[in-house]
Amino acid sequence: MSHLIRWPSLVLAYLFLGLAIVGIPLPGLPTVPFLLLAAWFAARGSVRLHRWLYAHPQFGAVLIDWEQQGAVSRRSKVIAVGMLIASWWVMFWQVDKPWLLTGVALLFVAVATFLLTRPEPR
């Protein structure tokens, strides 16, 4: 593979993996989308990192479920929707701009709807 693709992909894979890890404890920062991006870029930048992600005890199941079935576990859905609600409430008490609160609420409802309509893994 070309160095023009491999190195930027590797950097982006690690960047998105870092964001996914930071997103685990932080409400408002999504873990799964960053993890999916990390896996996608790792496939283009590092076979070793890609294998590690898929073999990881926590990350691997999420990636395999999504890749094979387009599925999201019930636990992940509950956590994600809970974090969206918590994030919006924090913004509600901190932000004085109704247009921003409305826009974020619409975005969060769209994300929650997408997640909740995904099948659960078999």
- The share of residues in helices is over 70%
Distance between the termini: 35 Å
Number of strands: 0
**What are the low-pLDDT stretches, counting only 5+ consecutive residues below 50?**
none
Q: Largest sheet, described in full? A: none
Tally the helices: what do you get? 6
Can you tell me the number of structural domains? 1
Could you state the order of secondary-structure elements as H and E? HHHHHH
Task: Walk me through this protein's architecture.
The chain is an all-alpha fold. It has one domain. It is 78% helix and 0% strand. The longest helix is centred in the first third of the chain and has 21 residues.
Kindly list the characteristics that best describe this protein.
6 helices, 0% strand, 122 residues, mainly alpha
Secondary structure layout:
Blueprint: H1 3-23, H2 32-45, H3 47-55, H4 59-69, H5 74-94, H6 98-116
Helix pairs in contact: 1-2, 2-3, 3-4, 5-6
Give me a quick take on this structure.
The chain is 78% helix and 0% strand. By secondary structure, the protein is mainly alpha-helical.
